[in-house]
Amino acid sequence: MYAFSYSRPETLNATVAAGGQFLAGGQSLIPSMKLRLAQPGAIVDLNGLTDLAGVRASGNQLEIGAMTRHADVAASPEVQTAIPALAQLAAGIGDRQVRARGTIGGSLANNDPAACYPSAVLGLDATVVTNRREMAAADFFQGMYITALEEGELITAVRFPLPQAAVYLKFKQPASRFALVGVFLAQTAQGIRVAITGAGLSVFRHAGLEAALTQSFTPQSAAAVAIDDSELNSDLHASARYRAQLISVLTQRAVAQINTP
Question: Is the pLDDT of residue 261 over 80?
Fold first, then answer.
């Protein structure tokens, strides 16, 4: 690990003014630093910003502070009631230690191509709130580990519209528990949304599945959609063809779950 300076401001203004690499839960940054894959000259610890943690239900939306831990999202009565699929998603991230430290804001800012939260944010058409602006999910995710965040810009909260129904299913890589493929399926006021993580360079929606399920919301309809594997990931864990098959199977299972009373 390379040498670095460290600060832990207690206000948002002081945090932004400090300059440096923001540290939330540290579940990605710290291992990268230990392996010397990252070399930040200054670390700005966000854990003093207690106002950025917590869950707030308001009308037809749910707002989750960026510093809310995965374990707290999973255990939140508000999340369990309003968007149970989101609580289940958070409960399946990593292991107990990761869930105790990792944060929703840190996960989104990192935008790992196999992370779970991006699929919920895109699948529910959530709004990412920063210290400077508000961004639609479609504008936020821009590629592998790439987001629309600018230098000094910090996620403060995420606002989720409440869906009519939603399910998240993932096929885990057994060692890391990241998603080989994860499917977030949501019935919303704007229509059917299918967001895929783990299969490509970044989270994406599948237009073919959405169109088919809009016409007929059945597992058979999802099964009839051909999944193109030409731009999907292929690595030592799974081939692109295997990931394409997982997208189809997990979507069929998600539809079946929603259709089951």
Answer: no
Q: How many CA atoms lie within 13 A of 154 on its CB side?
A: 25
CA 208 to chain centre: 22
Structural domain boundaries in the chain: 1-44, 165-259
Q: What is the CATH code for 1-44?
A: 3.30.43
Name the percent of the chain in helix, strand, coil, to the closest 5. 35, 25, 35
CATH number of 165-259: 3.30.390.50
Half-sphere exposure of 120 (CA within 13 A, CB side): 31
Give tens-digit pLDDT for 37-74.
888 889 999 999 999 999 999 889 999 999 999 999 99
pTM score, whole prediction? 0.94
Closest to 201 (Cα-Cα) out of 151, 144, 130, 149: 144
One-letter amino acid for residue 8 of the chain? R
Q: Is the CB of residue 213 less than 8 Å from the CB of residue 194?
A: yes
What is d(CA 55, CA 75) in angstroms, rounded to the nearest whole number? 11
Do 164 and 188 meet the contact criterion of CB atoms below 8 Å apart?
yes
